[in-house]
From TrEMBL:
<protein>
    <submittedName>
        <fullName>LPP20 lipoprotein</fullName>
    </submittedName>
</protein>
<keyword id="KW-0449">Lipoprotein</keyword>
<feature type="domain" description="Lipoprotein LPP20-like">
    <location>
        <begin position="50"/>
        <end position="126"/>
    </location>
</feature>
<dbReference type="Pfam" id="PF02169">
    <property type="entry name" value="LPP20"/>
</dbReference>
<feature type="signal peptide">
    <location>
        <begin position="1"/>
        <end position="27"/>
    </location>
</feature>
<keyword id="KW-0732">Signal</keyword>
<dbReference type="InterPro" id="IPR024952">
    <property type="entry name" value="LPP20-like_dom"/>
</dbReference>
Length: 295
């Protein structure tokens, strides 16, 4: 009996792994992180019982929409909420989340449709990742019990100094005076943060965290206004600087040293993380979610 139970457990584990791989493939293909939408294409064919071409076309369209809803539900299940959980996992553990996600699927809008040569029909459906009304973020991201303040810089580590003119002046001042307190002063004027994760294999998630090398979180959804997180998301994912407008005209640009939590969360050096926290204290760009990840 124990041997049978072990075999059943192994089979169940393998099935769960295959299912997770399947939904991840759907999510990778159908989630547009730059435009923050989930987009799927459903197809349908007229049944043989259709009495007229018009009826056949209408039934094919209905079948395409049903197929689109199915694909949308499968795609959404594979969307990563954090580095360690996806929507499907949350649906299993929470009936409330499952109900909210079902509402997101039902609320998807048809953005285009067309007849396919030969009598078939194609419908493209979209659902928003973020937004005030019926978005996936509103369904799966829970508000924190109480807001968490951003941490203080690590006091024994001198903050890094970005290579721009203002930073150079501070660097010269700090070098001459050898004054730790001077290096802890903000440079000022930064409109946002760009974390360069290119080449590291960053995974896109709905609720990312920025950490320092000591594992301390310096940016997470619990630090932010919940309504802002649901409406706009915490970060933009961009392929190059030209798409990093969310960080404003004078962003602080830093290179991630590694990734944590299954490749979802950028890790900064302690010195760089200290600089982020100090500059945020001056202009509040983290509070405004003016953050971009390059991947």
């Amino acid at each position: 009996m124990k041997k049978i139970c072990r075999k059943l457990t192994v089979c169940l584990t393998v099935c769960m792994m295959l299912l997770a791989m399947t939904v991840s493939v759907f999510a990778a293909e159908n989630v547009d992180w730059e435009n923050k939408v989930i987009r799927v294409t459903g197809t349908g064919v007229p049944p043989a019982t259709a009495r007229t071409p018009v009826q056949g076309r209408m039934l094919a369209r209905r079948a395409a929409i049903v197929d689109g809803y199915r694909m949308l539900a499968e795609t959404i299940s594979g969307v990563d909420v954090t580095g360690e959980s996806n929507v499907g996992m949350l649906e299993v553990t929470s009936d409330v989340v499952k109900t909210k996600v079902s509402a997101v699927v039902r609320g998807a809008r048809v953005v285009s449709e067309r007849e396919i040569p030969g009598g078939g029909y194609e419908v493209v459906l979209e659902a928003p990742l973020f937004g005030i009304s019926n978005s996936l973020a509103g369904a799966v991201i829970e508000p924190p019990a109480q807001p968490v303040e951003f941490p203080q810089p690590v006091p024994e580590v001198i903050p890094s100094l970005p290579a721009d003119s203002a930073a150079s002046n501070v660097a010269r001042f700090s070098t001459v005076d050898n004054n730790m307190s001077s290096s802890m002063s903000p440079i000022g004027g930064y409109t946002g943060l760009i974390v360069d994760c290119r080449g590291l294999g960053l995974k896109s998630v709905m609720s990312p965290v920025i950490k320092n090398e000591r594992g301390i979180s310096i940016y997470g959804h619990e630090n932010l206004n919940y309504d802002l997180v649901v409406r706009d998301g915490m970060v933009d994912y961009a392929s190059d600087m030209s798409r990093a407008g969310r960080a404003g005209g004078h962003p602080l640009v830093l290179k991630a040293v590694s990734l944590s939590d299954n490749g979802a969360n950028p890790v900064l050096s302690v010195a760089d993380a200290n600089r982020v926290l100090i500059e945020n204290g001056s202009t509040g760009f983290l509070n405004k979610t003016s953050v971009v990840f390059l991947r």
